[in-house]
Structure formats: structure tokens, C-alpha cells
Batch of 2 targets.
Target 1
Amino acid sequence: MRKPFAITLDPGSSLANHTGTWRTLRPEYVDRLPPCNSACPAGENIQGWLYHAESGDYEAAWRLLTQDNPLPAVMGRVCYHPCETSCNRAQLDSAVGINSVERFLGDEALRQGWKFDAPSAPSGKRVLVVGAGPSGLSAAYHLARLGHAVEIHEAGPVAGGMMRFGIPKYRLPRDVLEAEIRRLLELGVTLKLNAKVANILETMRGGAFDAAFLAVGAHIAKRAYIPAGSAAKVLDALSVLRSMEGEEKPLLGRRVVVYGGGNTALDVARTAKRLGAEDAVIVYRRTREKMPAHDSEVEEALQEGVLIKWLSTIKQAAESSITVEKMVLDAKGNPQPTGELETLAADSVVLALGQDVDLSLLDGVPGLEMRDGTVQVGANMMTGHAGIFAGGDMVPAERTVTVAVGHGKKAARHIDAWLRGAVYAPPPKHEPATFEQINTWYYSDAPKTVRPVLDGVRRQSTFDEVVRGLDESNALYEARRCLSCGNCFECDNCYGVCPDNAVIKLGPGKRFQFNFDYCKGCGICVAECPCGAIKMVPEEI
Ligand SMILES: Cc1cc2nc3c(=O)[nH]c(=O)nc-3n(C[C@H](O)[C@H](O)[C@H](O)COP(=O)(O)OP(=O)(O)OC[C@H]3O[C@@H](n4cnc5c(N)ncnc54)[C@H](O)[C@@H]3O)c2cc1C
Ligand code: SF4
Ligand code: SF4
Ligand code: SF4
């Protein structure tokens, strides 16, 4: 399959020239690690699945993608796509829309009803997974595919964790989430709902489990001391978002103040707007540059009419108003009080100040190390207690769905090895594919596709999905923008430019090899490879 966006040369235009052995350097075909792949917390082989997608084989693309991540339709909606931040194409024009192609593949798989391949032969081992959030689900998926009998114990009434009870519907429609979870469970994973694990060792003993993966997330809302009159309505963000999943929607009033600067604060404020609040005001003690929330979410919230009061803290809450104090940033960038006060009308105050982990299920387990309210794990995701592994929000790491999914995969590989009395050794990493190795002139201009969004009026009044997917032609176009950094895509350039016909073509999918009887080590192939898939190495003497 030729890349339509790469300009290629006619092969075989020079005569063979048997040169003998006066080379000091010889060319070598290499595979390098593209930056997108190394930045994806789930370790997806992005370039590999984009390659299938650009040839129109969406099922092959989806199958390759789901070897690492079982939730592409979810990822294509909620992942903050660090892969795109690292994409080499960003230095040329703009990053490949990896996330939108991932969503297209995820949605296409749901439309077509593609299923995962059956698991390997049963291993005879039983693994307990605690928590059916993204980390637990990912671990269960990978463990089941490796042939282990997996039982998930979930405290709540439905699976999904924060994907269900945190992320609002307008960013992640529930039918998409449910369909991806259902397909995963069809691998033979047992899901026990309303089954909170109170003591991990007892549950493991009771169910004769050989190992456990814990992924209980971080669900205890942090509180701040705010003097509040008895009539003041102070709620926490997680309870508000959770109640959106039930019959009774939260009563927040016409003027809602949200306290905090993370993504949760934005989700609550945007939810309040959709519930009919005239004013949804976020009070945050630092500046926009210092806000932990992702910029795209801040932008979307502002477009929907959410107001943000920067450099402010809440001093006091009363029945229908709050008092805020203006802050300034000191030399170290920390907010300091000014004593300058202001009153804002507020029917309710929602605290979105972060979450702590409920580690009570680990009480009395020997060997564990806790730090800053999280459980410590080694490079193999195992806690200090043999056979108990952990991941996701309950271990020290960035708290995102994709990191949680990556932990689940990594832990599953180590659990699998541990159950066999072995140690999992990840394959050695290829050297990185840098932008400097790309010959950009071979690629045509191709600006990034813009994803369609729901119109402003409907965004403020409904929970319909805001960001829409790409259609097939746009997804195909976007996949073709990939530069195939560091890996041969069979453009035939090396074959065409070699003055000594020293490049042997092995056939579609088999790439090329050098005929060193003819190669004189001129390095033209290296200079003319668009994507840095050939390097010169010292000649062996
Ligand atoms: C409002 C909000 C919006 C977010 N938006 C995004 C986003 O857009 N993109 C993104 O990447 N990340 C987002 N995040 C972060 C992301 O949701 C989390 O990092 C991720 O869900 C963590 O996954 P997890 O599996 O570790 O835990 P969770 O998703 O929290 O799942 C843990 C599960 O364990 C269950 N459980 C807890 N205790 C027990 C027990 N003792 N026994 C049995 N089950 C138990 C819980 O009921 C829950 O289902 C958001 C978070 C919030 C709060
Ligand atoms: S999961 Fe996120 S980081 Fe990984 S490829 Fe998808 S969008 Fe990129
Ligand atoms: S151009 Fe393609 S291979 Fe290179 S970093 Fe971007 S997505 Fe990855
Ligand atoms: S090695 Fe480079 S120049 Fe040769 S076919 Fe592959 S991508 Fe093209």
C-alpha cells in the first residue's frame, strides 16, 4: 500500500554496478519508536493501526489497536491524547488527529458488531479484580485473553467507575460506554455488582483467588473548611455528578458557584448550565495558566457561558451568597490573600477540590507501603504484598482514564508471569524516531481535520454529545496524514534512488534488503528515505 501523500520516485532507473568492498559505512533498515506510541499511556501501536486504517482495512486497525486498549470508542472521546502532543507532524503543520481516528474505529467496531478473539486455553488460575473502572476493566480484559478466570467485584450498581459516575454524558454517551464494556465481559469475565470488597485478604481466601488486581479509584471528595451558615447549600462535585446518573437530578438553583480548578470543576459547572442555572461561576485561586484543567475543556466551558473568577478563594458561604477574597501570586507562583473581599450571589456551592482514595479494604494487609494516601507499587504494579497488584487512581500517577487502562494492561502481563512463577520482561524499546530524521519535503501539505461540534444553543440546554466524530472520508484522510515516523512504509524511494541497484525488493509487506555485493555505502538511500527508516552503521571489518 503506497502512501498517497508521499511523492515517490521510479525504481530501477540505474544500472547494476558491482563495486567491491571499499565501504566504511553500510546502510541498515531499522524500526524506530514513533513519539506518539511512546507518549500513549496505554502503549498503543498507533502508527501500526493508522497504517491499516489508511488502507481502508478498519477491522485490522481495530484489532491491532485493541491488543493494547479494549475501549477505543471511549478513548476517542475522553482521552486527553498526549500522543498528539508528541506527534512529529505537529512540527510540520499540526498533529495527526489520532484521537479522532481512534474514535472512528471504535464507533465502526460497534456499528459492525466486531468481537474480540476468544481467549487462550484456560490457565486454571483465578484472578480477582476489585473495581470495574477503566483500570479494572482493562486488567480483566488482558487477563481473560491470557486464559485466566477473572471475577470483577464492583461496589456500585453498574460498571464503568468514573467513566460512568464522573464524566458527563455530553462527553461520553452511556450507550457507547455500555457497549464497549459488554463486549469486554463477553470474553467470559464475571462481573459481580453491588459487591464492595471490605477486606481484600478475606475475599481472596473466600474465592480461592490466586492473585488480585486492585483498582478502586479515588472517590472520597476532599473538603475545605468554609464557614457556612446553616441555610447555605454546600455540596461536593462527585455527589452532584453521580446523582446525574439517577432519577433525581440535583437541585442546584439558578446561581451555582463551583470551587476548584480541575476538570471536575468544569464538568460540574457545565452540568449546572445544562440543568438550567443562569450563572455557573467557577472560583479558582490561581490563574488560567496554572489551572490543572485541560485547556480544551476550559475553552468549551467558556463557550457555553461558564464564568471563571480567577485568583479568588471562598471565605464564607451563606444562604444565597458567598464571600470571596481576591488573591495575588507570590514570586513562587503561590496564591496569597489580599484582604480584598467581594460578595457573589449563590444558591449553591459545589466543592471540586480533588479526591482521596478509600484504602480501608487493605487494613491489616502486611507488607504494604502507603504514601500521600495512595498505595505504592513496584515497576511490576505489585504492592508490597505478594500476589496483590494495584493500578489506576489509587496508585501514585497521573489520574486519567488512559493511564488507568495502561496500568491494567501492564499489571495483567506481570500477574500472568507471576502466576507462572516467571518474571515478565517487556521487549526492548526501539530507538526514538525524531522529527529531524523526517524528510518533510516528501509529504504533501494536509491540514488537520476539524471535528464537528454541537451548536451553542443545544450545548447549553441538552446533554447531547458536544464533540462529534469524523465521517469515513475524513478519518481516512486523517490517517493518511501520518508520516510513518521511523518505520518503512514501502514507498520504494530507496529502491528507486540507489545508483547501484543494491536494493532488493522483497514484495508487499516484506519490505527490502540490501545487496552488499553492489552497495558502495554512498548513503543516498538514507538521505532519501522520507521517514528515517534506514541508518548508516560502521562497516564490519
Ligand atoms: C468528573 C471527572 C471527569 C473526568 N474526566 C476525565 C476525562 O475526560 N479524561 C480522562 O482521561 N480522565 C478523566 N477523569 C479521571 C478518570 O475518570 C480517572 O482517572 C479514572 O476513571 C480512574 O480509573 P480507575 O479504574 O482507577 O478508578 P475508577 O474509575 O474510579 O473506578 C473504580 C471503581 O472501583 C469501585 N470500588 C471502589 N471501592 C471498591 C471496593 N472496596 N470494592 C469494590 N469496588 C470498589 C468503584 O465503585 C468504581 O467503580 C475524570 C475524573 C472525574 C472525577
Ligand atoms: S489512548 Fe489516548 S494517547 Fe493513546 S492513542 Fe488513543 S488518544 Fe492517543
Ligand atoms: S506522524 Fe504518525 S508516526 Fe509520526 S508521531 Fe505522528 S502519528 Fe506517530
Ligand atoms: S526504507 Fe524508507 S525509502 Fe525505503 S521504501 Fe521504506 S520508507 Fe521508502
Target 2
Amino acid sequence: MDLESHDFKLDELVDRIKANDNRLVALQVPEGLKIQALEMIDRIESESEAKVILAADPCYGACDLVHDKMKMMGVELVAHMGHSQMNIESGMPTHFIPVTYDGDPELADIYPILEKHRNIANVRRTNLSKDVEISEEEARAKFLDAVGRDSPLSGNRLGLVGSIQHLHLLEKFKKRLEEAGFDVTIPVGGDRLTFPGQVLGCNYSGDDATIGHYLFLGSGDFHPIGLVLHTGKPLALLDPYTGEASEMSFERIERILRQRFGLIMAVGESDSFGILIGEKPGQMRRNLAIRMKKLLQRHNKKGYLLALDHVGPELIDFYPVDAFVNTACPRIAIDDSTRYSKPLITPFELEVSLGEKKWENGYQFDEIP
Ligand code: SF4
């Protein structure tokens, strides 16, 4: 990859640096783009008077702002790449750059998948004829979503979403999909999301009952798994980098749910828990962590509050507790739990294991609003 494949909008950044006469600038870049960071530094330094510091720690989202540390170093402006601003205060001048990628994948292979998913949505719709009476069991089977919740739909619309690099393509794809006969909506989410159609691994708040199925424009599993766990709806995937069309299979989601249930069972007899609090500003859920500690106390169990910037097995495995509850980035427990030698569960899963919530009522994704 080189600077040509993505649009890093460096001209705008250099203009701002020059206009402010900034002399020390920090660059915060997500993991996938770090390989190009030195090339970016060369360009910024050659086109302006500024020196550039790369914030080289791992960065997975706009939840992770390094501003306090950079302020201490005398940095005047932070350029945060590849993510958009969320509902947290950055505390110093910040230039968010939602890096874009101009893929143009064919839609032909995605249509059969979308048609299949629309049929599933039609079955789950609530518009039952008044003359038809169905039993509670039949209703449950009819309205059940992919994560076991009884959640009837009021529509069968196609929700078109994407990761940030591809959001600028959504309107174009919406038009094409409408021409192919789909009723398409680009969902608008809550304060944590900046753009229509945007989803984060921790937030899918644009979902509503009129949306029956989804198409995600992007690559990798990170967003798609969370999207299905959160919405319980069928999901088709189109990768603008490779052009590949596929779907998130219900079998895969079932496997993940079985694994989650196995972890809930495994912590049933646990007496002591480490409760992880993320120190990154957009992951910090202190109140939730304290609520989990109080909940454990009520059940005569012990919870220790552990605050960390990065969460990894080498940083927590050695504590003499039976299991961990994660209140930092919700994806840590879902994507990485097999890397830890002790069970790592979400707050909802702890509540299920303590009998406060019921697994039979369906899975609740751990969303940060
Ligand atoms: S909390 Fe996790 S999923 Fe959410 S933006 Fe941060 S890194 Fe991404």
C-alpha cells in the first residue's frame, strides 16, 4: 500500500498547520494504516515548519485520544486519522481525518443474498392478518431474531451501513440498490456516531424495527459480528477492497453464542472477579464497573476494580482471581476472550451468571451509547 490507495486529506491538515503556525504536531493513526505513518510524517514536515510526533501506541478508535500525554510534550495540534469525532471532549485542538477509500465493487453477487435476507425479514414482520390466531410458541418462533430475542419487525427495509473509509460511497450504492428493487435506508445513529450509515464495534444505534436486514460495506469481522449480535438481523457483506460478496452466517453467530454461554457457565462457581475499567476517554465506564462490583457484593462475591489503558492477557492473567468482567472496549471480551487463561465476560453475561438476567430472553450486546 502507498499514500495513493487511501485519501488521507493531508493537504487540509498541512493548510491548518500552516494557518496556525503550529511547530509541534502529533499524529495518531489506526493500526492498519501505521505502515504509512512515516511517509505521512515526511510529507507534513517537508510542506510545513512543524515537527511531527507519532503517537505510536495501539489505536483502535476515536475513543482513544492521547491528548493529555501530548499536551505534556508541548504538542499544539493532534491529527487523529481514520476515525471520526465521538461524544467525548478531546481537551485540545484536534483535527479528525476520516480517511476514505474509493472502492467500486460489483453488486451482482450480493443481490441473491439480499433477496434471501429480505424473505427472512418478511417472515418476522408483524403484519399478521387479524383472522389468523397463532399460539405464543408460534409467535415466539416467528419473531425470534438471530440472538434469541422476541423482537417483531415493522418493516423489511435494507439498512445500508459501512465502516468509516467507505461511508462516502453509501449514497451511490443506495441508488443502485433501489434501482434493483430494495427499499433502502441509511440509518442515523446516536451521539457517538458522526455520519449517517456509520457503525462502530461498540455502537449500532441507528437500528430500528423498520430495518429487516443489513448490508455492510467494509472488510473484516470486527463490525459485522457486533452488528448481528446487537441487531439480531441478517447481514450481507460487501468488501470494497476485494469486491467479495458474502454473508455473516447464523451458524457463526450461533457458535459465538454457544461460546458466550460456555463462559457464563464457567464463571457460575467463581468467587472473585477482576473488573476491568478502560482508561481511554471513550471507553471509560467507571459507573458500570462500580455497579458490577456492588452486584458481586450482593451475591457474596468479590470484585476488584482494575484500571488499564491497554487490555491484554500479559497484563491481567496473573491476578489471583477466578475470572474477569470487562467494561472497557466491548469487543475485548467478544473477539479476544480465547487469548486469556481465565474467563473474560461482559457485564450482561455476569448478570446472567448471577441470575439477575435470563439467557432465554436473548443475548444483549454490550453497547457504549
Ligand atoms: S470502544 Fe472499541 S469498538 Fe468502540 S470505538 Fe473504541 S475501539 Fe472501537
